[in-house]
């Protein structure tokens, strides 16, 4: 029987409590599937940097490995080899490694494929036989937490050895950082010293950042691809200025690069740009595999320059899953499918394939940017040499604003976010379109066409801003009138009270 012919589509199922009775699998599927139809189309979600399309062959690999727990290294040795493994008596030597962990003599060093590929991409100082130091995470948020913990612990160890206070660590970064940095600061008790933005400059100013560094700074965090406008911060300038300051002060303040968005872009379309381990103070880098690493949501990476940059006391060793294995993550169990998908993309596309994808994204970004400029209605806030996105604001928002444009674009299926900039540029509102692999030139041209339709419609509508102002003014006038009436009534009552007292006093005097 069809699920639509069953009684289960006539009755409302409980939403927040488990139902008493079971229902057929077909009915459960149909009920959930029907609700999911109300979601937006992921490919038209232009707010997100996260990958929304992969090749069918990779989809098959993901589904085939969706029931494998990555942490079970002993049970799934081949899957483990793609990211991490350690030697133990029951398995042959394999060329893989999550971390170069020679913290104990008997631990053999193995080479992790994905981590090593990414480390080489970021120009890590590795010899032919060296294994990279890094770990896979569920995203850049976890990767940043791990990098931050490493910086904090290394700084604390040094301060303890010097007999100095170690209770007030801080990180210097721009106000344009993603919220995961605020989480790191709050969860792990680190002060976040933010360089404020200003009109026309929406990333961290290296000179101001270095000025804010003090003896308690555990690292300077530079962003390769700002969430707000896609711009690459000048990591080299930050490095050069910090080298000079370290010489003057005797400190050794390092740099972390948050390359969540830009880490898989710069090496392919700006290989000459120095932002990575070519700079001596860059000690760790995070990157999101599920952004321009071209994998579905759920995979990130963090790599360190050398093993000395990752304090060994942060590594845990367990053996209750069948073998001694190191672990340095915030969570334990996680799926293997995203690691496999990342490896698929790395070997399937290679340098040539990634370069082609990133160039296509950049070219389609330019098509969208030029189309918006031709309307004559927008200022472009983003840069051409960063993450392939277009951030733009209305030249005239006195009648209608960016939030109205965003709202009306949803009628055409487009999800385009509008937001205000952080301090001290919070008076600037922008719209942002992220160009991903699956955003074609045809879609870019169609989006411009729909934006023009929205602008035309808005011009025919009364100004919401003025209407709101009139409502506020009318409310103020009503409130003023009510207050005047209240004052008049109170004055009348006061006069009446005084008159009554006068009359009563006269009566009393007459009786006496």
From TrEMBL:
UniProt entry keywords in alphabetical sequence: Calmodulin-binding, Decarboxylase, Lyase, Pyridoxal phosphate
EC assignment: 4.1.1.15
InterPro entries associated with the record: Glutamate_decarboxylase, PyrdxlP-dep_de-COase, PyrdxlP-dep_Trfase, PyrdxlP-dep_Trfase_major
Lineage top rank: taxon: Eukaryota
CC terms in the record's Gene Ontology section: cytosol
Cofactor: pyridoxal 5'-phosphate
Pfam families tied to this protein: Pyridoxal_deC
Reactions accelerated catalytically: L-glutamate + H(+) = 4-aminobutanoate + CO2
N6-(pyridoxal phosphate)lysine modification, residue list: 291
GO molecular function, a single term: calmodulin binding
GO biological process, one term: L-glutamate catabolic process
Similarity comment text for this entry: Belongs to the group II decarboxylase family.
Official protein name in the record: Glutamate decarboxylase
Organism: Salix brachista
């Amino acid at each position: 029987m069809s699920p639509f012919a069953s009684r289960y589509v006539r009755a409302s199922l409980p939403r927040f409590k488990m139902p008493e009775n079971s229902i057929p699998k077909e009915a459960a599927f149909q009920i959930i599937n029907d609700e999911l139809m109300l979601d937006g189309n992921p490919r038209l979600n232009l707010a997100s940097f996260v990958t929304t399309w992969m090749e069918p062959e990779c989809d098959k690999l993901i589904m085939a490995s969706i029931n494998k727990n990555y942490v079970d290294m002993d049970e799934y040795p081949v899957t483990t080899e793609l990211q991490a493994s350690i030697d133990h008596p029951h398995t042959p030597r394999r060329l893989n490694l999550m971390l170069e962990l020679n913290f104990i003599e008997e631990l053999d060093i193995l080479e992790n494929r994905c981590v090593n590929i990414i480390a080489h991409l970021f120009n890590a100082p590795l010899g032919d036989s060296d294994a990279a130091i890094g770990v896979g995470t569920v995203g850049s948020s976890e990767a940043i937490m791990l990098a931050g913990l490493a910086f904090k612990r290394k700084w604390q160890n040094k301060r303890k050895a010097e007999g100095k206070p170690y209770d007030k660590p801080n990180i210097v970064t721009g106000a344009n950082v993603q919220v995961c940095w605020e989480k790191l600061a709050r969860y792990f008790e680190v002060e976040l010293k933010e360089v404020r933005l200003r009109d026309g400059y929406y990333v961290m100013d290296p000179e101001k950042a270095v000025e804010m560094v003090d003896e308690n700074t555990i690292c300077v965090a530079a962003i390769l691809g700002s969430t707000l406008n896609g711009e690459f911060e000048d990591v080299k300038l930050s490095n050069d200025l910090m080298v000079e300051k370290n010489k003057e002060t005797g400190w050794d303040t390092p740099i972390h690069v948050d390359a969540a968005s830009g880490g898989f872009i710069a090496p392919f379309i700006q290989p000459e740009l120095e932002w990575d381990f070519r700079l001596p103070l860059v000690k760790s880098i995070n990157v999101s595999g599920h952004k321009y690493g071209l994998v579905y949501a759920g995979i990130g990476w963090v790599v360190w320059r050398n093993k000395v940059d990752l304090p060994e006391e942060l590594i845990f060793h367990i053996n209750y899953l069948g073998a001694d294995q190191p672990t340095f993550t915030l969570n334990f169990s996680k799926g293997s499918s995203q690691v496999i998908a990342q490896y698929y993309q790395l070997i399937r596309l290679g340098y040539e394939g990634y370069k082609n994808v990133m160039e296509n994204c950049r070219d389609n970004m330019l098509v969208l940017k030029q189309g918006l400029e031709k309307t004559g209605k927008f200022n472009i806030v983003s840069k051409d040499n960063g993450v392939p996105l277009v951030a733009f604001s209305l030249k005239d928002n006195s009648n209608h604003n960016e939030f109205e444009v965003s709202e009306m674009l949803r009628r055409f299926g487009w999800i385009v976010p509008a937001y205000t900039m952080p301090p001290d540029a919070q008076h600037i509102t922008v719209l942002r379109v992220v160009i991903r692999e699956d955003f074609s030139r045809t879609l870019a041209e169609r989006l411009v066409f729909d934006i023009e339709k929205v602008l035309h419609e808005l011009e025919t509508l009364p100004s919401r801003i003025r209407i709101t102002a009139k409502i506020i003014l009318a409310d103020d006038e009503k409130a003023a009138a009510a207050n005047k009436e209240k004052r008049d009534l109170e004055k009348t009552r006061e006069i009446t009270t005084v008159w009554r007292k006068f009359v009563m006093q006269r009566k009393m005097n007459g009786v006496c």
